[in-house]
Specification:
The protein is mostly beta strands and 329 residues long. It has one domain: Beta-galactosidase, Chain A, domain 5 (Distorted Sandwich). Helix content is 5%, strand content 37%. The protein is built from 2 helices and 20 strands. Strands 1, 2, 3, 4, 7, 8, 9, 10, 11, 14, 15, 16 and 20 form a 13-stranded antiparallel beta sheet that branches. A 4-stranded antiparallel beta sheet has the order 5-13-18-17, with no helix packed on it.
Length: 329
């Protein structure tokens, strides 16, 4: 089933040193190209990328109110057949940007910055730079690391830096039946104050699907589906604590495609709760659903997620296999 090496889920430390973990002849080069506006990752011999990371606001941002613009997220995310499985600036929720991380209700220095709902203009997340020496193109895998700045926009004297976040993105060549990559997020407080993530029903590492997975008719069945490892749908699975979640449906390019997101067992409050929207194509891993917590100076909040992008419908066996490999990493 796998055209891959036994250790492609090896340590991120080895990845970022550029150490080749795959045997010769089993995989091709993974190309990571750092451009002025984007970072693009492509597998050898394939016409479409695996993903594009946005260092600046996209051209689409200019069509909307300025406060909805954002940098520091992944879009588009492509299936092996070149089908786009993420959506950006959806008409119903312009603040949902494909593959993104944002906290919702927070407290900081007696204020309440909000990093999710951009319409409130209470918080901002921005790309700050590529980590020096982190761009790796190699046999079987490629990687990059970037830094984001989280700012409180509610302070009376102007924006206040709150969090420095680092994303480590590692893409593996595991064969032609799927795309596979990991994101590790490391969030560190700037200064000597803590950030309280208040109890709330959503917020965290999120993903928004394309418009073809959504219907604005209230009584219509959504054309896209969401399912957990326990076989629960978007209604029954909401605020459950699954080992993984898969979202899929019809795509503009024809046929079906989707993406599964697997959280690492080392994540805070694992297995985290998930917000599965009842009709919109998005879900988010939300560790604050039942209780608040704090990100404390000197104690980074670290989380890691694995993404399996596929054509057709979710294959439970493949996703469970990737979850098992991630647990053994």
């Amino acid at each position: 089933m796998h055209n891959s090496c036994s250790r492609y889920a090896g340590s991120l430390f080895a990845v970022f040193l550029g150490t080749g973990l795959c045997g010769q002849g089993q995989t091709g080069p993974v190309s990571v190209v750092d451009g002025e506006e984007t970072i693009t990752v492509t597998l050898d011999g394939r016409s479409n990328p695996v993903l594009i990371y946005n260092k600046v606001a996209t051209k689409e941002a200019s069509k909307h109110e300025p406060h909805f613009a954002r940098s520091g997220y992944i879009h588009p995310l492509y299936s092996p057949a070149g089908k786009v499985v993420t959506g950006d600036f959806p008409a119903d929720h312009k603040h949902q940007h494909a593959l993104f991380f944002a906290w919702t209700k927070t407290k900081f220095q007696k204020r309440k910055p909000e990093f999710w709902n951009q319409k409130l203009e209470a918080g901002r997340i921005s790309f700050m730079g590529v980590v020096e020496g982190s761009i790796v193109s190699s046999e079987g895998m490629g990687s990059f690391a970037v830094e984001h700045l989280w700012e409180d926009l509610t302070a009376p004297d102007g924006p206040v830096p709150v969090i420095k976040e680092k994303w480590k993105v590692t893409v593996y060549d595991v064969g032609k039946d799927r795309h596979l990559f990991d994101i590790e997020s490391i969030q560190e407080m700037l200064g000597d104050k803590s950030l309280t993530i208040e109890k709330y029903h959503y917020g965290g590492m999120a993903i928004r699907g394309p418009d073809t997975w959504y219907s604005d008719e209230k009584e219509a069945t959504p054309p896209g589906s969401i399912v957990t490892d326990e076989g629960l749908d978007r209604i029954e699975g909401n605020h459950s604590r699954p080992k993984w979640v898969a979202m899929s449906g019809p795509v503009e390019e024809g046929g079906e495609a989707g993406v599964a997101v697997i959280p690492a067992e080392s994540n805070f409050r694992h297995p985290q709760w998930v917000r599965l929207h009842p009709n919109k194509p998005y879900f988010v891993y939300a560790p604050m659903v039942e209780e608040s917590f704090k990100i404390i100076p000197g104690e980074p909040y670290i989380s890691k997620f694995r993404y399996v992008v596929f054509d057709g419908e979710p294959d439970e066996g493949i996703i469970n296999g990737e979850a098992q490999r991630m647990a053994e990493d």
